[in-house]
Amino acid sequence: MKELIEKIISYILGGLIAVALLIIVFNLKIFSEDINNYVTSIYILVAIIGVLISALVFEYKEYKVVKKNNKIRNETITLITHEMRTGLTSTSWIIQSILENYNNKITLNDLNILKGVINSIHGIVAHSVNLLDISVLDIQKLLIDLKWVSLKKVEEMFLESIEKYKIICQKNEVILINDINLNHQREMEVDLMRLRVIFENLMDNALQYMQNDKKVITILINNDDINMSVKVSDTGIGIPQKEQSKVFSQFFRASNASNKLIAGSGIGLYMCQQYIQAHRGHIIFESKENEGSIFSFTIPLKTFENVNEFLEKI
């Protein structure tokens, strides 16, 4: 709608400028008593107004078509995402039920495999939420489910996700170092599903852009009196200095990643920034080509100030 209004204003201004130029160039006197001069002026004004109206009608019709197509696209993505999440969640419940009821009859190896399957399902469900959020960002409807949760629950979510990456790192001969030090007595207002997406996007990037000779990923998670901090560093290919200003742009991919034919959509970091900002947090990074990258983000903890802000909302 904003773009349509801007176009309408530009057309009106263009029409007024055109009328002013015609009056100046042809020395037309719209209010002249000379009937010929008056009629000529009216014809020109009517022609310009007609062109403006036609242009506005065309733009409005185009806007309606685009809006309708976007609505169909978003509804389709929402439906597919919902069905996918429902199926995956049901599968997770079935596996969880097997683990609870037949725990003593399953070998330790099979038990670990089933737990890995559950972790993978949770990851896919989280990324399906990411897909849904991308579909609605263009209509400014990114809604996150913020709830007050303890840092103990936040830590459990991180540990669950890290278990999945331990297996991946082991298979790819990547050294994974993690240090989590959170005060379980503190709370934060967070959407755990989106927080997981943020963390796993950073982890996926660290793994995907790893170099062959040195493979180390370090995870540091802690908190102070004000924020929870998460830092993911890697020894990957890094980001060229001249391209770093575009890192959080939608569909951006670094040239060195494209040259190495590494697959990627270019929306992961963009969505990370959107989610973190929705949590009133901040994300920064440092990177050096051929040496690696460090991505850090902070999300505020529960304090008297943000509790009062929350109460004002309700």
Give the arrangement of secondary structure elements.
Blueprint: H1 2-26, H2 35-101, H3 108-137, E1 147-150, H4 151-171, E2 175-181, E3 187-190, H5 192-208, E4 216-223, E5 227-234, H6 255-259, H7 268-278, E6 282-288, E7 292-300, H8 304-313
Helix pairs in contact: 1-2, 2-3, 3-4, 3-5, 4-5, 5-7
Please sum up the structure shown:
With 314 residues, the chain is α+β, with helices and mostly antiparallel strands. 59% of the residues lie in helices and 15% in strands.
| DSSP helix fraction | 55-70%
Count of distinct strands? 7
Characterize the main sheet.
5 strands, mixed
Order of helices and strands: HHHEHEEHEEHHEEH
**Shape category:** elongated
What does this protein structure show overall?
The chain has 314 residues and is of the alpha+beta class. It folds into two domains: 1-141; 147-307, Histidine kinase-like ATPase, C-terminal domain (Heat Shock Protein 90, 2-Layer Sandwich), CATH 3.30.565. 59% of the residues lie in helices and 15% in strands. It has eight helices and seven strands, in the order αααβαββαββααββα. The protein has helices at 2-26, 35-101, 108-137, 151-171, 192-208, 255-259, 268-278, 304-313, and strands at residues 147-150, 175-181, 187-190, 216-223, 227-234, 282-288, 292-300. The protein has a five-stranded mixed beta sheet with strand order 2-4-5-7-6, with helices on one face. A two-stranded antiparallel ribbon has the order 1-3. A hairpin with a 3-residue loop joins strand 6 and strand 7 (292-300). Helix 2 (35-101) runs antiparallel to helix 3 (108-137), helix 3 crosses helix 4 (151-171) and helix 3 (108-137) packs across helix 5. It is elongated, with a radius of gyration of 28 Å. The two termini are 29 Å apart.
